[in-house]
Amino acid sequence: MAGQAHDLMLRLHGDPPTEDDLAGWMQKGSVVRLEVSEQGSHQMAHVMLVNFSGVVFAWLVPFRSGRGVSF
């Protein structure tokens, strides 16, 4: 993932961030710890550090049993 330009669909676990959270993290270039599982994967939820200084576009998408964020 590092150094690769691509979309990544993540399913968040726990309290979802707000649009203002995402915007603030992107503006500050924050590194944020998120509990996620990859969309379409059967992996258990795990912690991922996301460096928002490299995130160009993000949106919140509701899922049936949670919320997702695409980076």
Question: How would you portray this structure in words?
Answer:
The protein has one helix and five strands; from the N terminus they run E-H-E-E-E-E. It is mainly beta and 71 residues long. A hairpin with a 7-residue loop joins strand 2 and strand 3. The chain has one domain. The relative contact order is 0.31. The chain has a five-stranded antiparallel beta sheet, with helices on one face. The chain crosses the membrane at residues 44-63. Keywords: Membrane, Transmembrane, Transmembrane helix.
Strand and helix map with partners:
Layout: E1 9-12, H1 19-28, E2 31-38, E3 46-51, E4 59-63, E5 66-70
Antiparallel strand pairs: 1-2, 1-5, 2-3, 4-5
Would you summarize the structure shown here?
With about 70 residues, the chain is mainly β. Helix content is about 15%, strand content about 40%.
Describe the sheet with the most strands.
5 strands, antiparallel
The radius of gyration over CA amounts to 12 Å
When the domains are counted, the total is 1
The helix/strand series, from N terminus to C terminus, equals: EHEEEE
Q: Give the number of helices.
A: 1
Keywords, separated by commas or semicolons:
71 residues; mainly beta; five-stranded antiparallel beta sheet; 1 helix
